UniProtKB/TrEMBL annotation:
GO terms for cellular component: cytoplasm. SUPFAM superfamilies: NAD(P)-binding Rossmann-fold domains. It comes from Kutzneria albida DSM 43870. This is NAD-dependent epimerase/dehydratase domain-containing protein. Residues 3-72, 86-208 form the NAD-dependent epimerase/dehydratase domain.
Length: 330
């Protein structure tokens, strides 16, 4: 196949380009080329999607498959469809689990109701508008190329080249051993996807012309089981997991999910649905989540590459963890 990846210089789009190359496909990546390098063997076409005519360097090209990872821009998606949709054999749009209107109810699947769409003309590109802009983008894809479109909605993505510091916090923290602060929320459900499994599924979908809307996460599991499993794989002997109640965490300024001074994967009840999706349709359609040991070694490899004691975008510093543990004991 001749595959166009809109992106290809970082994380998800880099992994898709690499997987397509590994299978012998011809890969063109279209990006500014400022965030990183495309995988060896891919051709980089320099484009700037902030310019409405930015895709002109691709004019007249035809692709068997196009993969768009536009994070938060409806105009980027609309303009790409206008420029390339007619000549594309298959179109993947990487959306997000945050498109759903109901984020609290557990066990919903990809047929659940979506948020109201928000085009960039109708609102700012802020984290609060992320899901609604993705809904508008998905709708543009379905309107233009719905007969050829694979709309894939990942939850938390981990693996090589992840720079969000979220899933990786846990393998990185467990590897340091000692007393590890964990949220006392063992029953909360959690889901994630390894970027390599997501990329493999996207390339499978293009090869097989898979069409439809799907969530891309592994089956839900208890947070307590996941953290115990990561500890078993990554922690030295003598490591102790110390559960601290959500009330004490909140009172000590610890945020759920992400950002500074946070405990990744921990979610307040109003978001429990986004990490407890029913994914049997995705598994039946070819998503193959790898075993936890491979997920953890991928995340730990990335953590070590970045430095276990770096200043983090998500998680607790050593000092913050010690402070909260002391407050919990008091
Ligand atoms: N991380 C998660 O846990 C998570 C969860 C759910 C969904 N997602 C979705 O997964 C996707 C992540 O994609 P990704 O990892 O490939 O990364 P990304 O950070 O979304 O970047 C994608 C590509 O866009 C290119 N780009 C940025 N600005 C550009 C511009 N003005 N013109 C042309 N290209 C531009 C970048 O290359 P250059 O900068 O070199 O141009 C990069 O290759 C997003 O759609 C996100 O919403 C992520």
């Amino acid at each position: 196949m001749r595959v166009l990846v809109l992106g290809g210089t970082v994380f998800v789009s880099w992994a898709v380009a690499e997987e397509a190359l590994r299978r012998g496909h011809e890969v063109v990546c279209a990006a500014r080329g400022t965030s990183g390098q495309v995988p060896a063997g891919a051709r980089l076409v320099r484009v700037d999607r902030d310019d409405p005519a930015g895709l002109a360097p691709l004019a007249g090209e035809r692709f068997d498959a196009v993969v768009d990872v536009a994070k938060m821009s409806y105009p980027w998606v609309r303009d790409a469809l206008a420029a390339l949709g007619a000549g594309a054999g298959h179109w993947t749009f990487v959306s997000t689990i945050n498109v759903y209107a109901d984020e609290a109810t557990k066990g919903l699947d990809a047929r659940a109701a979506l948020r109201e769409p928000l085009t960039a003309e109708g609102g700012e590109q802020t984290p609060e508008n992320y899901g609604a802009i993705k809904v508008a983008s998905e709708e543009a894809v379905r309107d233009a190329v719905g007969d050829r479109a694979f709309v894939v909605r990942p939850g938390l993505i981990t693996g090589p080249k992840d720079d969000s510091d979220r899933f990786g916090y846990w393998p990185g923290r467990m590897a340091r051993g000692g007393q590890v602060l964990v949220p006392d929320a063992a029953e909360q459900l959690v889901q994630y996807v390894d970027v390599r499994d997501l990329a493999a599924w996207i390339v499978d979908a293009a090869e097989q012309r898979l069409v439809g809307d799907f969530d891309a996460v592994c089956p839900a599991q208890r947070l307590g089981d996941l953290l115990a499993g990561i500890a078993e794989l990554a922690a030295p002997a003598g490591t102790e997991l110390v559960p601290v109640s959500p009330e004490v965490l909140t009172a000590n300024g610890v945020q759920p999910w992400g950002g500074p001074r946070s405990l990744p994967l921990w979610l307040p009840a109003e978001y429990h649905g986004i990490a407890a999706r029913e994914v049997s349709a995705s598994l039946a359609a070819g998503l193959r989540p790898r075993p936890l040991d491979e997920v953890v070694s991928g995340a730990l490899g990335r953590e070590r590459e970045l430095g276990l004691d770096r200043e983090r975008r998500a998680g607790l510093s050593r000092a913050a963890e010690a402070e909260v543990l002391a407050a919990a004991r008091a």
